[in-house]
Amino acid sequence: MTLPSESTPKTDAPVLFDAVLMPHRSLSPHGFQWLITALICANLLIGIPLWLIGAWPVVGFMGLDVLLVYWLFSLSYRSGRLRETLTLTERSLQVRRISPEGDMKSWQLDPYWLRVEMDDPPQHESRLTLISRSVRLIIGRFLVPEERLEVAQALRTAVTDLRQRRFAHHWDPK
């Protein structure tokens, strides 16, 4: 998913392209609470009669499935905290990757040497690659192919506009 950046670095140069890439999560935290509640209720609905007929060990295993679903969704939400920020100015393209643990890596790429590579039409295994001089950086691995293509096209347009900047000249026709 591409969103406007909330944490644009403070520079003198105007920002020409700014995006935050983050993984999509289809289930909101509120929906997750409803899912766990429904799972517990279904387990109780099935588990209580089993307990009453003497199959009490089954109830323990039914509780384990709720814990497993909770743990797996917690891992998914944790990995959803990954962020990649792209900020293009006249001087550089800054790429910042913030891991789910909060570790940040940053790259500065020269926009005049920048190539943006992406298959069009995108395939599932297509990668969005930024190449500038000797640096080769793959971004947006967590995005679906169509979103990667959308980011690639927008970034290509911004880089092309940067390279073909037009300046207003006020010439005296005398």
Structural descriptors:
single chain, 174 residues, alpha+beta, PH-domain like, 2 domains, three-stranded antiparallel β-sheet, 8 strands, 39% helix, rod-shaped
Annotated CATH topology of the largest domain: PH-domain like
CATH class membership of the largest domain: Mainly Beta
Count of spatially separate domains: 2
Order of helices and strands: EEHHEEEEEEH
User: Termini, distance in Å?
Assistant: 54 Å
- Helicity range: 25-40%
Strand content: 15-25%
Number of strands: 8
User: Rounded to an integer, what's the Rg over CA atoms?
Assistant: 24 Å
What is the average per-residue confidence, as pLDDT, rounded to a whole number? Answer: 87
Name the CATH superfamily assignment of the largest domain: Pleckstrin-homology domain (PH domain)/Phosphotyrosine-binding domain (PTB)
- Characterize the main sheet: 5 strands, antiparallel
- Supply the helix-strand structural class: alpha+beta
**Weakly predicted, low-confidence segments:** 2-8
CATH architecture of the largest domain: Roll
Q: Counting H and I runs of at least 4 residues, what is the number of helices?
A: 3
Order of neighbouring strands in the sheet with most strands: 1-2-3-4-5
Identify the overall geometry.
rod-shaped
